Amino acid sequence: MRIRAVEISVGVFLLAGILALLLLALRVSGLTVANSTDTYKLIAHFDNIAGLTTRAKVTMAGVAVGKVVAIDFDTETYTGRVTMEVQSRVNNLPTDTTASILTAGLLGEKYISFSVGGEDDVLKDGDVIYDTQSSLVLEELIGKFLMNSVNQD
Amino acid sequence: MSADDAFAVELKGVTFKRGSRKIFDNVDIRFRRGKVTGVMGPSGCGKTTLLRLMAAQLKPDKGEVWVNGQNLPSLSRSDLFDMRKQFGVLFQSGALFTDLNVFENVAFPLRVHTKLPEEMIRDIVLMKLQAVGLRGAIDLMPDELSGGMKRRVALARAIALDPDILLYDEPFVGQDPIAKGVLVRLIRLLNDALGITSVVVSHDLAETASISDYLYVVGDGQVLGQGTPDQLMNSENPRIQQFMQGNPDGPVPFHFDAPDYRDDLLGGR
Amino acid sequence: MVHKSFLDRIALFGRSGLDIIESMGRSLIFLWHVLIGRGGAGTGLHLLVKQLYSVGVLSLAIIIVSGLFIGMVLALQGYSILVDFGSEQAVGQMVALTLLRELGPVVTALLFAGRAGSALTAEIGNMKSTEQLSSLEMIGVDPLKYIIAPRLWAGFISMPLLAAIFSVVGIWGGAMVAVDWLGVYEGSYWGNMINSVDFYDDVLNGVIKSVVFAFVVTWVAVYQGYDCEPTSEGISRATTRTVVYASLAVLGLDFILTALMFGDF
Description:
Oligomer: heterotrimer
Helix content of chain C: over 70%
Radius of gyration of chain B: 21 Å
Distance between the termini of chain B: 61 Å
């Protein structure tokens, strides 16, 4: 009688807690279930990856098609080597695809955007993207602007 | 070396220290089987420590504690667990488990030590409560009981497993005369009816002396005196005399240690 | 009047430092015996359920109400700050990240320490002073296993769940304020949130934090109750110590954990 009420309320409490965790996982952080396994790796080298972090989105035409899984320094070419996991169903990227590091919004985070080239051959697991555009650094931009305005005078 | 069968509990050469203070220094105390033995003494003399040593809650630094032919400090954990069935302890405050009702409290030792079916447990609980006169309170919660009733339920719990030895820790403290009378009667009755050995630790002189067959007076880490109540009343020992007669001044002085009175008043601080 | 010399004061200070260290050592041994020491009789599942009720279920009210209000205040304040930058549509992600990473685990832990922690300390201290713990020993039941362990496990299990409930209630409360009152677009509130909240970095780290906090708060509460002076004054002092020590520990650990989890810049 009293004991039953206690047990029921404990059960409800535990369920509520687990439900809350599930809600946080799915509704709030957008964790999708059909995720990680069907991906293949692509590598790109950038002169400057400033601001890009792991877990950053990889998009194409604005749609998320993968994410950055590793960033390290390539000692031979003195560039930043970015490893990305791209969804397997996006398997028709031509070998001259460009990877650019862009900023989401004015002060937002960095992400990678692919734009297609025209080659017939497609990128496969482990391939390297050669055409890259580095992250825009604000100081360099201002520097260029100043140089241009000086040149015009 | 096993103990004499006439004595249910024997402490031999027991020394127990707390910090640097010797609570007991090479003490020998024996409790005769089937009798009520009282242990009295001034506050802080270690009466409760004695109970805890006997019930194996504490281990003596030196010496042996023999209970029913077994030396407690040398027992293994599981043997000690089995030993506990032979003890019942009544604490000063009753110490009922506040989240269980009267029935569950008395049934607790039965559930821990036996695998008896529910009907048998219920019968035993009813019998024990009947013995202490509280069978009607069986469904109440401890906070619905008066102090005296709590102690009686605790007593019922202490005898649930029909122990050989009952230890009473200050059973008369703070009780009104009726409650005291009830307890006195119960202690004596249980002892005689069940043939158990009772040890009553108390500083309530009148009640303890009235029910004890034998008395120990302890203090300063020693046994100051022992004997039947009559023998002690007529004792020559000044400390025992002061205790038995309740003199405010004697070997235990009235004045706490202080510098000279005159110097204190005149000198100022 | 006894005047303490300067040297005496230093000695006292050193003594209290040593006492604190000794107490911490005792509490570690205590923890060992409760969690790992030789097992006693029975599974005690019903004991755990009872404790989950008194520690978890009974804390739900304060957690839900607090979570709701904090979420709503976050949305309100966040909006008022972001609107100056034209970024008020980002209030969703602000509320969610603040709650998941920090306020959820920390505030839940502080509230838990105050409500459930102090109750545990007082209950155990009371059992000690009325000699119930001694009675259990006399009957042959180890009070560490019978009384303390279920309460400890109940705390470990309840608090992370309570923290999750806190965050959820806060986020939905914030949505109520932001969308229904302040006019933020519902799509922006949730959309920006989903885009910027990462399960591993934010949700999981928050859960890890609340598990660590649960461990510390419950351990402090239970130990203070077990170790207190068995008088009513001793119990009230122990209860105060529980709330103070547990709260300070939570805040200190929060800094360390945050630095470890989010600090690699």
